[in-house]
Amino acid sequence: MTDIGQSPRLRYDEGCLGAHALNFIGDRWALLVVRELMFAPKRFQMIRAGMPGITASVLTQRLAQLVQSGIVAHDEVLAVYSLTDLGRSLHPLLTELCRWALLLPGHDPKKFISVSALMISISATVDRARAAGSQLRAGFLSGTEGFEVTLSKDGMPQVRTTRTPTGDFVLEGGGNALASAVYGPPPAALAAAGRIALHGDVAAAQEFTSYFSLRPQTRSSSDSPEDIVQAPAASST
Question: Quick check: helix, strand or coil at residue 80?
C-alpha cells in the first residue's frame, strides 16, 4: 500500500491547483471508479458492473493508479478495493459535477446509471428548502447493494450502506428503475407496472421522491460538504 498523496504520473506540468488535482484524478474513468467505491468497499467485478463501458484492462490500470496516489486502498487478502479518507473527500466534487451537469444540454436519463451514481446524484438534485425538516427514511435495494437515506435538518441527504435496508418505505430494482422512481413517475405507478418493488408506506415514498428533480437546483449559501457520507462498511461481497 502506498502513502496517501504519493506523487502520480505527471499529466499537467503546471502550478495550478486544479491541474495538480487532475494529475491524480484526471484520467478517463478515474472519478467514476471513485464514484463506485464512495459508499462501500467492492471487489473488482462489482466495480466493473457499475461501469459497463470500461474494459477489465483499463479498470485494472485505473485502480492501480488510484492506489498509487493514495485515493484507493486494496486489501489483497479480502480482494476488495475501498476509498481512503482522501478518496472519500471527493464526494463534494462529484456532487458539484452532478449539479453543474444539470445546466448542460443533452443529458439522457434513460442511459445506464448505477445505484451508487444515483446515491451521489440525489445530493445534487434535492430541493433542500422543501426537504428540510422531513423525518422520512428511505431504503433502496439493488441486487446486493442496499442503502438507507435520511434527510438532515437542512434537507441534505445522508446515505448509509446496509445489506438489509429499512425505512418508511423501501424501493427495490435496478439503478435505472430506481432513478425513474426518484425523478420520474410516482413510485406506486412504477410498482404497479412491475418496474420496481415498493415495500412500506406508499404515500411516504411519493412525498420523499417529490423532493428530487433533474431541473437545475439553486445552491444554498449554507451548503456544507461535511458529514454527507458516513464511513463505509468494512467489506462488501
Answer: strand
pLDDT one-digit tens code per residue, 78-133: 999 999 999 999 999 999 999 999 999 999 999 999 999 999 999 999 999 999 99
Q: How far apart are CA 225 and CA 58, in angstroms?
A: 30
Amino acid at 42: K
Q: Exposure string (b/e) for 49-64, b if CB count within 10 Å is 16 or more? A: ebbeebeeebbeebbe
pTM over 0.85: yes
| Stated length of the chain | 237
Map out the domains of the chain with their CATH numbers: 17-88 (1.10.10.10), 111-209 (3.30.1050.10)
* d(C-alpha 159, C-alpha 20), whole Å: 30
Residues 168/138, Cβ–Cβ less than 8 Å: yes
130-163 tens-digit pLDDT: 999 999 999 999 999 999 999 999 999 999 999 9
